[in-house]
Amino acid sequence: MSKYLKDLTERALSTFAGGVLTVFGVGAIDVLHADWVTALSVGAGAAVVSVLKSLAAKGVGDGDTAALLPVGK
């Protein structure tokens, strides 16, 4: 897997997790009674936005990363 795809995947997964936690709220997670469909849907939507941003960044920043800004050398 290329450095770019690893970067894109890490960003998408962390954004997904952030979206899921946002639905539940920090410290208010009750996994037995959680609305998992909504939480996973929000997480997936956030991950899609992250992937789209990373794809757009490939043509702007350093082509080996999913960042918009160029990597300082």
Please explain how this structure is put together.
There is one protein chain. By secondary structure, the protein is mostly helical. It is elongated, with a radius of gyration of 15 Å. It has helices spanning 3-24, 36-57. The chain has one domain (3-56). Helix 1 (3-24) packs antiparallel against helix 2 (36-57). The protein starts with a helix and ends in a 16-residue tail after the last helix. The longest helix has 22 residues, at 3-24.
What attributes does this structure have?
73 residues, elongated, mainly alpha, 60% helix
Q: Which sequence of SSEs, written as H and E, runs from N to C?
A: HH
Tally of strands:
0
**Total domains, how many?**
1
Rg:
15 Å
Shape assignment: elongated
Determine the fraction of residues in helical runs and give it as a percent range.
55-70%
Number of helices: 2
Average pLDDT, rounded to a whole number, is 81
Helix/strand structural class: mainly alpha
Q: So what's the oligomer here?
A: single chain
Poorly predicted sequence stretches spanning 5 or more consecutive residues: none
Q: What profile does the largest beta sheet have?
A: none
Strand content: under 5%
Q: Termini separation (Å)?
A: 23 Å
In short:
The protein has 73 residues and is an all-alpha fold. It is built from 2 helices and no strands. The longest helix is centred in the first third of the chain and has 22 residues, at 3-24.
SSE blueprint:
Layout: H1 3-24, H2 36-57
